[in-house]
C-alpha cells in the first residue's frame, strides 16, 4: 500500500514518588526510571508534576506563613532546578541512553535569583537534546505561595518524529483555552503531569485525572499520557502531619491513578493504584486520523470567522534600563503660565536655569 505510514509509538507513564526535597537523589531516581522505560521500549516517557525535587503538598496541611511550611518552602527553593544546569545534563544523558522523548516535571528557579519559582516541564529528545521547557501558566491554590505563572510561550507544542507533542500540568488540562491552544497545533501525543497528592472535598484525585484525561482526548483527538505522583513514608515523615492528615495523604483515592487514553477517549492502559510503577501502551496514530475526520476542531470542524483564540507569547519585562547614559534635566519651577499659554514653557525653562532665578539657587 502507498501513502503515509504513521509509526507505532510506545508511551510510558512513570508513577513514582520523589526523593522528597532532595534534588540530586530525585534526579538520580528519574534517570534510572528513564533508562528503565527505555529498556521497556518506550518512545516517550512522562513524569509527574514537580518530580524534582517535590510538589509543595505541605500547603494543604500547614499555615502558609507557619514554621513548618516556611521551612519546607526554603528547602524547595534550595533544591529547585536551573535550566540548563547539572541536573538537566544528567536527564539529557538518560534520555539519550533510553533513546526516548522525555517530559519531566521540575520546580525551576532562575540563576542568581532568590524567591521566585516556576512549576515547569522539561522536554528532552531521544538524542539527549534539551528541546525546551514550559511553565505552568497558573499555579493552583497552595502552589501560588511558591510558584509564579509562565508566559504564553508555555503553550507551544514540540516537534517529534511522530508529530507534534504537547504537555500541560494538572489543572491546566481542564482550561478550555489551553486545551484549544494545544489542539490548534495538532498535537498527537499529550502529556499530563499530576501531583503526588491533591486532597479536595468531593471527587478523589484519581477520578478527576481520569475525567480530565478522557475529556482532553475527546476534544483534541490526541493520545493522552497521564503521569501521577505517589507519596512515600519518607515524605510523610518530613511533612509533620496530624494523625487525621496522615490518614488523608495515605488515602489511595487521593494519589496515583496514572493512565493512558486514546483519541476516541478509551482508556487503553491503567489506571494504576497508588503503587510505584511504569505504565506502558502502544499508540496507533491512525486512531487520531479517524477521529479527526469526524471532529477536527483545529480545521474543518470549526468556524474561524466566528471563533478565534489569540495567544500572547511575548514575555513581559519587569525591569530594564531605558537610557544607560545619565543626562541632567533642568528643574521646572514655575508652571503657572503654561496652562494658559503652551509657548510659555520655554520662558519658564529659561528662568529656571539663568539670571539668578529661583531655579538657580
TrEMBL record:
The lineage of its organism: Bacteria, Bacillati, Actinomycetota, Actinomycetes, Mycobacteriales. GO terms for molecular function: catalytic activity. This is Nitrilase. Belongs to the carbon-nitrogen hydrolase superfamily. Nitrilase family. InterPro entries: C-N_Hydrolase (IPR003010), C-N_Hydrolase_sf (IPR036526), Nitrilases_CHs (IPR044149). Residues 9-285 form the CN hydrolase domain. It comes from the Bacteria.
